[in-house]
Design a protein that fits this description.
Length: about 180
């Protein structure tokens, strides 16, 4: 078994792996072309993240996708593991740990000092095992995360209804100089 960066020729296999992960987690699965487009973007676009694969017996048996993030409360960049999947027939062989270790090595090379991961929903059958895996890799518990799906959730319209008074305005030279910007 070996771990390496994903290549363009891996797009279909990585998309299938993420599809299997989402099915196992009980999550929504985007259409295959959309998954493949995101895999290709992660491979092609420099600086957005890492896509690592584990190969065994000539096939992809593990996938780790991570994105590089910035947040005011975390000085510098950090990584967020978005997807981690190991083929069921290859589990309990240390493949997930090797993928996480490879990401940590890549992060250190780039001066990144933090990796985060969101755990599956509370009703996921293997939640305890998943949390134990990450704790074993040195992760510490941060708490639950939430999301807002824009355009798909009627409650999301309350966050910023279309045509609402809340608008985004790019910073102007006047605002950048410290002068206040007033609107009618």
């Amino acid at each position: 078994m070996s771990v390496r960066e994903a290549r363009r020729g891996d797009v279909a296999a990585v998309a299938a792996a993420v599809e299997a992960l989402l099915e196992e987690l009980g999550g929504r699965r985007p259409e295959r072309p959309a998954l493949e487009a995101e895999v290709a973007a992660l491979i092609d676009e420099d600086g957005v993240g890492e896509l690592l694969v584990a190969e065994g017996d000539g096939a992809i048996v593990g996938v780790l996708a991570a994105s590089w993030q910035r947040a005011i409360h975390v000085p510098g960049r950090y990584a967020t593991i978005q997807d981690l999947w190991v083929d069921p027939g290859w589990r309990s062989r240390g493949i997930g740990a090797e993928l996480v270790a490879a990401l940590a090595a890549r992060a250190r090379e780039q001066g990144v000092g933090r990796i985060e991961v969101g755990l599956p929903r509370e009703d996921f059958a293997a939640l305890e095992a998943t949390e134990a895996f990450y704790r074993g890799a040195g992760f510490e518990h941060l708490g639950p995360r939430m999301r807002l799906l824009l355009g798909e959730n009627p409650a999301a319209a309350k966050a910023a209804p279309v045509g609402s008074a809340v608008t985004y305005r790019p910073m102007t030279a006047q605002a950048d100089s410290g002068a206040e910007e007033h609107s009618p």
